[in-house]
Specification:
- The complex is a heterodimer of chains A (243) and B (124).
- Chain A is of the alpha/beta class.
- Chain A has a single domain, classed as Spore Coat Polysaccharide Biosynthesis Protein SpsA, Chain A, CATH 3.90.550.10.
- Chain A contains 8 helices and 7 strands.
- Chain A has a 7-stranded mixed β-sheet with strand order 3-2-1-4-6-5-7, with helices on both faces.
- Chain A is globular, with a radius of gyration of 17 Å.
- The radius of gyration of chain B is 26 Å and the shape is elongated.
- The chains are: A alpha/beta (243), B mainly alpha (124).
- At the A-B interface, strand 3 and helix 3 of A face helix 4 of B.
Chain lengths: 243, 124
């Protein structure tokens, strides 16, 4: 299978090379693993670093936000006929050794697989108490709207098959898209699964949610509203597996 | 409604109409947006010249002064225009995102073709 790793990068000049190197070192038997860096209008030298090191990258002329950047990657995967697309952060948080586990889950018939920090004690990632409460609340809200428990709804480490790639090419939320898309995917009857992964603290840069105290509050309100609206507006579909 | 207020409102409507005409002529505003503002003007003018009928409506809603009702109508139309403009902004944002994405993907393709071309030429 042809697998594309989508690496959204905003001001990641310090970590982007090590991220790409970790992907090149990752062992994925029986599959072709390609990558594409999406430079989301970075203000630092991310573009220059990509050019100097001959990385495969897409340069967005303006900052579209995480949703717009990731959707660009899905479009690239769709146009180039990839079988699986994997989202992978450019800040060094994700561990490339779990890519083969994500691919295995897709091969077993799941449409989208989420690398979860919270279904095992593997992760070195230490989230703050407030952040954890927020994630638990979103998880509860998704369970309420869809009936399915997703333990790490904000994880940006995800793999999906061609059906989901096509869905994301047609429609993808602009900001904070992860929980929102999970709801619409479950509602449309696709199979979603989670596997435990190890995540590290980011090696450089600052999370967009840590810039001021109002951001997390805005994030929670916006994402909760988006989940509810998506849940109400997406028609529930029952899919018979194997058809 | 007293005469002074009536003259004031009619003058505002006429000035706005004139302003819209000039802006459309100089292509500083889209014709569809100018039409929207003209529509607001028209509603205001109709209100001003159909005062006796408006009395029935204002009595029904419970607004004592007709002038207050005219301002309320004006405010409601402005609100509708604001919602229309917000929708417009959202549409444009989506279009800009799509354009930027397609441009980025094309640039990536072009870079790939350039690399291939240089590699071929160097091998020759």
């Amino acid at each position: 299978m042809r697998v594309l790793v989508i690496i959204p990068a905003y001001n990641e000049e310090k970590s982007i090379l090590s991220t790409v190197k970790s992907l090149k070192d990752a062992k994925v038997k029986g599959h072709t693993l390609d990558y594409v860096v999406i430079n989301d209008g970075s203000k630092d030298n991310t573009k220059q670093v990509c050019l100097d090191n001959h990385l495969n990258f897409i340069n967005l002329p303006i900052n579209l936000g995480i949703g717009g950047a990731v959707q660009t990657g899905y479009k690239y995967a769709y146009y180039n006929n990839y079988d699986i697309a994997i989202q992978f952060d450019g800040d060094g948080q994700h561990d490339a050794s779990y890519i083969s586990s994500l691919i295995n889950e897709i091969e077993q018939g799941n449409d989208i697989v989420i690398g979860s920090r919270f279904i095992s004690k593997l992760s070195e990632f230490r989230s703050t108490g407030i952040r954890r409460i927020g994630i638990n609340f979103l998880s509860f809200l998704i369970k309420l709207c869809t009936g399915k428990r997703i333990y790490d709804p904000t994880s940006g480490f995800r793999a999906c098959n061609t059906k989901i790639i096509k869905e994301f090419v047609n429609d993808y939320p602009i900001d904070y898209p992860e929980p929102d898309t999970i709801v619409s995917i479950i509602k449309k009857g696709y199979k979603v699964s989670e596997i435990p992964v190890k995540m590290k603290e980011r090696t450089s840069g600052v999370s967009s949610l840590n810039t001021n105290i109002f951001k997390p509050l805005y994030y929670m309100i916006k994402v909760s509203m988006a989940i509810i609206i998506t849940s109400l507006s997406t028609k529930k579909v029952r899919v018979n597996n194997g058809q | 409604m007293d005469n002074n207020l009536m003259i004031f409102l009619v003058s505002i409507c006429l000035i706005t109409l004139l302003l819209m005409y000039r802006m459309v002529k100089k292509k500083k505003i889209l014709f569809k947006h100018a039409l929207m503002w003209c529509f607001l003007d028209l509603i205001l003018l109709i209100c001003i010249f159909t005062l006796p009928y408006l009395r029935i409506i204002s009595d029904f809603i419970g607004i004592e002064k007709i002038s207050n009702m005219i301002f309320l109508f004006g405010f409601l139309v402005l609100l509708a225009i604001c919602i229309g403009l917000t929708t417009n902004v959202a549409e444009h944002r989506l279009k800009i995102i799509k354009l930027s994405q397609e441009q980025g993907i094309l640039e990536n393709k072009l870079r790939g073709l350039e690399d291939e071309y240089y590699k071929k030429n160097n091998n020759k």
